[in-house]
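A note from the maintainers: we've had questions about how concatenated examples are separated. There is no special marker in the raw files; a new sequence line simply starts the next protein. For clarity in this README we add a label.
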Amino acid sequence: MKQNVALNVLGAGLLCLAPLFAQKTSDSAATTHSVPDARRLRTGTFTYHDLDHGKEVGQGTISVRHLARSGNYDFVAKSTFATDFQGFSSQRWEVVATFRFEPVSARLAFVRDSQITPVFDLIYSSGRVSGYFVKRKGSGQGTKQNVDASVPPNTVDQRIDWAAVLATHLETGQLRDLEQIKVPAGTFRAYRIVYQMGKSGRTEHYQLFASQESPHVMIREEFPNGVISELVQISKSARRP
C-alpha cells in the first residue's frame, strides 16, 4: 500500500504543493486530504549516501532544526560529490520555512576547494520573492540576475519537497500496511509514498520511504534517474520534539 502525492514545479527551485491524498494501490476511491506540518518531522542531523546502480556517487548530511524564536524550521544540507560536477566538489543549501512549509528564505552554493560560489539567494515576504540567482554555463563565473516576482499560494521550495511529503499525515486508515526497509542505518518499518512533480511538459515520479515511528525520518528515496538516497546514520543530537 502506498500514498500518492502530487507536486507541480513553478520554475527553478520552486514547487506548488497540490492537494495531497492517500490512496490504496487497489485504486480505492477513498482519499484522505492532508496538509504538511513540519512538527511531524524528527529534528537533528541525518547522514545519507547516494547510489547510482549500486555505485556511491555522493554523500552528505541534512539537518532539520526548529527555530524557537520564530517557530520556523531550518533545513541545511551539505553534500560531497564522488567526482567533480562542473569543476565543483560539493554543494550547500539552506531553506527556512514555516511549519506549514511556506517559504521564508532559500540559498544554494557550490564549493570548489575552500571557495564558495553562490547560485541563488532568495527571500520571501507578502506573497513575493526577491533576491538573485547566478546564470552560469559550466564552472564559469556567471551573470548575476535580480529576482522580484509574485509567488503563488501553496509554494514549497524544491529542496524540501521530500520533507513536505514526509510531513503529511501518514497515520491514516489508508496506510496501515507497512514495509520493512534495510539501509546502512539499520532496518526500519516504513510507509512507501509515491509523489510526482510536473516539469516543463513532463511528469517525474519519486518514491519515498518514511519511518513508521513518529516524528518521521526519511529512510530512502528513489529518483527518476535511478539514483537512490539511503539513510546511513542518525546523529545522537537528533531528537523527538
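[label: protein 2]
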Amino acid sequence: MAPTKASRRRGRPLSVLERALGLFTEVRAGEGGTSLCMLAGVFFVLAAYYFVKPARDGLLAVSPAGGLSETELKAYSSLGQSL
C-alpha cells in the first residue's frame, strides 16, 4: 500500500499501526496512538455497560423495594445508571 498524500506532504511515512488502522478509516501520520486510545476508550465504556446491566437486573430481581413494582424499579435504575 502506497503512503497517503498527507504522509508524503509531511515527509513522514505511516507506521504499521497507522497503516492497519487505515484499512478502516483515514489516519494521518502521527495519529495512530491517539486513535488507538480512542478505540480502547469506546471499547471499555461499552464493555462496562454490558457487564453492569445484567448485574443490575439480577440485583433488582432479588431485592425488595418499598412499594415499587419490578418494572418501575427497572425504569428508575436505568435513569440512575444513565446519569
